[in-house]
């Protein structure tokens, strides 16, 4: 199979989704209004609620939702063949992810910037909200612990990425000052920032930083994990304009350019896809394609974490409601393109089918390292970039994606801790809530790993995908209730909801049997808790949808009706 043909077909499908389907959703389903007063203006506090240029906000949203998952998921899932992964990524981006991310933004903006967890109380009920918060807390705990491990492993495996990864923080702080304090021209700041980031990549490739095996009695990986949690804790308490926004924006530009470089190398070198379209002889122990494909590839098709970002940080920075189409749906497009590129790289970046089968000799063998090594060979062949520098570029891309997700994840979990505290009659300060998040994250990282390496996040990795997809289904349930109440078209949301829900519950049941047979009581217990919460919230959601169908429709005020116009106001 020609990698060029597959690449072009995938790009056309995803871009067509943005140009056509997202416009239908914006105008007919969500009815985005350019005159609606968004929470960023209504509650502007200069810390969390900050009206933001849509391009800057897109950078924050795109890099926050992407993380390493759209690399890890597809890089693992191609073990079933490239065709199932390709179809789920392309069609998932168009009909699932874009709809979900833009809809979560709309739902939060129409409810004063409240998180999805808070909205569940209003639209599903208090019992549903409490269970919803459990699922959200567990998911964010997994996200922070898992990405800390992914980043640490990449910094150790690719020491040339250390300087550009940490240097990007300094660049981001300077960009934030240039945009908000000095009021510099955004295109000029963008160019300078991107040049600085790529200059850091060149410096890092020349001067790798490799930590000793033991630091203060800790392994190098454990040391990096602690540093990452401490950094994310500090970053989560700073005003969004100071670090989070500019870091995500400039990383978004750099990463999109990196994607462009990767796609250019694919088009020029035109490597042959050596992996089978459908792998009829997967390695022993490989689980069934259905339902595991649909939870292995979450980010890149649909992801519940995106709803947390949309309603947790992005909705508080949206300048105009109509920007939700570009920020939310096009953010999903960016992630879909990353997942598509990953599929091409990990199926065409090998000399022969035998070498691909050697790498994919067991389930979960593929991952970020496979993406970096095979992608590096394609960059070298297509653009003549030295193998070492190619690996540095791709490793830096992967780490920056994961790091920006971890930044946002810690901030979001802090919001959840404060919300849970409020339900318990406790009022946590920002500092106390952040400390609680860090303690839980480090506790999971080290407590769930008997080796003391801090990689406990990977112990619960098998549950990450199912929990993530469950949260997506629950977010879609809230959106469905809102649309039914407003008598809007709701099938574009309800049908994906049913599909994701069935696959996720199916996967949870499969994993319960697997964990029981393995005697993995930690994962078995967590799986049962998540399954019970899922079933309970599903019942509450179905009841809420039924009530909404019988109630009088919510009146559409003049501002809401204006959403039938296009983004120019016509």
UniProtKB/TrEMBL annotation:
PANTHER family documented for this protein: INNER MEMBRANE PEPTIDE TRANSPORTER, PEPTIDE TRANSPORTER CSTA
Protein's recorded name: Carbon starvation protein
InterPro entries with a match to the protein in the record: CstA, CstA_N
Record carries keyword Cell membrane: yes
Family the UniProt entry places it in: Belongs to the peptide transporter carbon starvation (CstA) (TC 2.A.114) family.
Protein keywords: Cell membrane, Membrane, Transmembrane, Transmembrane helix
Main location: membrane
Domain spans labelled CstA N-terminal: 3-347, 356-507
Region of interest (Disordered), ranges: 547-570
Region forming the signal peptide: none
Subcellular location: Cell membrane
Membrane topology of this protein: Multi-pass membrane protein
Keyword Secreted: no
Membrane spanning stretches: 6-26, 62-80, 86-109, 130-155, 161-179, 186-203, 223-244, 256-277, 289-309, 329-350, 383-403, 424-447, 459-483, 490-509, 521-539
Organism of provenance: Pseudonocardia parietis
